[in-house]
# Entry
Amino acid sequence: MTAKKTYIQSFCSIQNNEIILNGETVFNTEPTVFSDFSKKAYQNFEMNYPKFFKMDSLSKLAFLGAEILLRKEIDATKENNIALLFANKSSSLDTDVKFQNSISDKENYYPSPAVFVYTLPNICLGEISIRHQLKSENSFFIFEAFNPVFMVNYANVLLNTKKAEKVLCGWVEYYNEEYKAFLYLVGTEGNTEHQKETVEKLYNK
Amino acid sequence: MNKGVAITGMGIISAIGNTVEENYFSLVNNKAAITSIENIPTVHKAVIKVGEIKKTNQQLADELQLAADNNFSRTALLGTIAAKQAVQNAGISSINEYRTGLISATSVGGMDMTETHYYDYFENENLVKYISCHEGGDVAHKIADELDLQGMVTTISTACSSAANAIMLGARLIKTGKLDRVIVGGTDALAKFTINGFKTLMILSDGYNMPFDNDRKGLNLGEAAAYLVLESDAIVEKENKKVLARVSGYGNANDAFHQTASSENGEGAFLAMEKAFQVANLKSEQIDYINVHGTATPNNDLSEGRAIMRIFGENKTPDFSSTKPFTGHTLAAAAAIEAVYSVLAIQNNVVFPNLNFKTPMEEFNLVPQTTLKHKNIEHVLSNSFGFGGNCSTLIFSKSI
# Structure
């Protein structure tokens, strides 16, 4: 296996009521709750995908980030072999807690299938796959903190073994109104070399 | 054709038998085991029929000679029984002699214990031990402990394709030389969690499941565990091992359609089968028997049927059957028990019958094999599709 150079082609972060694409603010709102912020972002970018409103917050966060980076990337007329490599710290705990609350009282017990379906973190990868018709590799990992070494290695393996043409990497953390998404697209062409230090720097920006 | 990875042992416990031999006897004698629920106190007892293993947890624990204060879930009990059989069948006496791993699939894990004791954990200290058996990974580690296995242990949970992915991962680890030997398979016990969950989705049959029938009304759940022992050719040669059959092909794909439904055209299933043929280096016309996923839900059989027609071509489909009318749909264990059935089909040169079939589906001209058929079987393709768009295909081949 010859390890070819890989490149960060675009990156996006979502936090504090703001969306930044390739270092520039593309959307922001006054301080508000995530449900309101995400709805306004959805409207601003005219995403036109009503299933968005059924999603839990983690999926909305991942979906928005993927939407911003992939909207110009996807060619609907062909197979887009873009792998999804995501991670976070709190898994789907935000939704798990909501679900647990709905069954904690024996007398007032109502588990909702619509909530239950989001009690796994990798559901957000499914939402992105369905939206962009990606039949590619996908994995969701849980780490104590953003792990650039792991992400860089894993993405490079996917590209070097030709399992994917590009890899959409993402850190999508959401718990209790605290959120941060950092997504970036890695490919075999570009100007910004895909290295641990660069990924770390962009994440901390 | 690629040589594939040697299968040198197998073990199984299901509603139709407690051993490989018993399962085979039931399959060739039309002995289905879809019955009323006995082991779980549920309000649906009278209406819902399942493929249940008619042994209590106590009986299973006694067979395994577990200590009285054990915290085995039913899933772990079944898994340990099947895995021990597989190891014994492979003639393994010193399990850590080679780099040996265990890849076990489950979807319910210890949910049966959690749902039984959930509201009592704060009150009853003696029950607290069951909390740690809830997570899926606990099952594999319990099995590994019972086998004294010290190597790699991991769990795969991709819904109803779980065991297929466990077998696939195991085969890849052998092929790439990461392991010399690996025990692969899956286990799932019945639980209210799945009974009520599938009922909510309205895909449970009120009678006996009828795969690929126009009037099919849904699935019967089942419980089972099965494991295969895969070994490197170096071990096979060195120890002059008997090879039961080989895992020659595998593939998995993402349907990218819906959380709990399969796409209309069976895209994920099509891609999984296509990849498996590439890995096996086989052509579709070389397949002698398809053990279909065939859950008998309206959605699965239509989607799978369309994918099969796309892969094999109109009127070129080989003999196929679903064995789920015998066992029920055993979820994460399904691909493992059907792997055992695929090997049995190869060893005995038989196609097992698809019970309960009467009327072909109006959407296409696909008619399953409804009676036991004897013919030479070189290659069997086995499908397993799960929620989350998880589609997997395995191909098993006669060892030459």
User: Anything to note?
Assistant: The domain at 7-204 of chain A is CATH 3.40.47.10 (Peroxisomal Thiolase; Chain A, domain 1).
